[in-house]
Design a protein that fits this description.
Elements lengths: L1 H16 L12 H51 L3 E9 L5 E4 L9 E3 L6 E8 L6 E7 L6 H15 L8 E5 L13 H6 L5 H20 L2 E3 L13
Parallel strand pairs: 5-6
Antiparallel strand pairs: 1-4, 1-7, 2-3, 4-5
Amino acid sequence: MAGEYNKGHEYETKAEEGGPVETQDRGMFDFLGKKKEEEKPVHHEQMVSEFEKVKLINESMVTYRQLRNDQVSSASNTEENGEYLIGVGSYDMTGPAAGVVMMGYANLGQTTAGVHFRLRARTFIVAERSHGPRFAFVNLDAGMASQLVNIKVLEKLKSRFGDLYTEENVAISGIHTHAGPGGYLQYYLYAISTLGFIQESFDVIVNAIVQSIIQAHHNLKPGSIFINQGDVINAG
């Protein structure tokens, strides 16, 4: 015991002779201090990682905005370079299928007696821009259009589109068939052969024209128009 005491005393003496010794006594919770020091670098790496994620998200958003701007710019360039927006629409305009004098022959015995195939209004719209100058051509499976039909169609279009479609850029034409119901013209001469004005014939034609124009308007897509000239051999 004495020897062990002397050795310990000598150690303390040497320490005193060699000057102050810097020590760090963590006591019984030393393991907690070490754990905190080990966690500090990991916490820093996690912060760096989160920062990088935010940076990548910001860069992605910038790239997305640039892509959208490029698409808008490309669309503008397309319209400026002579491309058009083209839309088509088609809507049923068959009308009363029985008991109505057909349009054209002025023959009271030529009345509708069923449906062989359905009649349609077909619209073609060509526009320079989405809200720019345009032209709408409507082709009817009917003998012809009429002034009263045009007036009513334009009234309905104005209530929906404002001044986008007017008498200056809407043309309504017929294929001159004699196989469709009559009674939709306001002219007295034509009303004689159909025994008067037939509201049902008129309403279905007006509605079909308006609906086909609406379809074509919402179907506008970029396109081109080509004109060709030549001879058709052995055609008739």
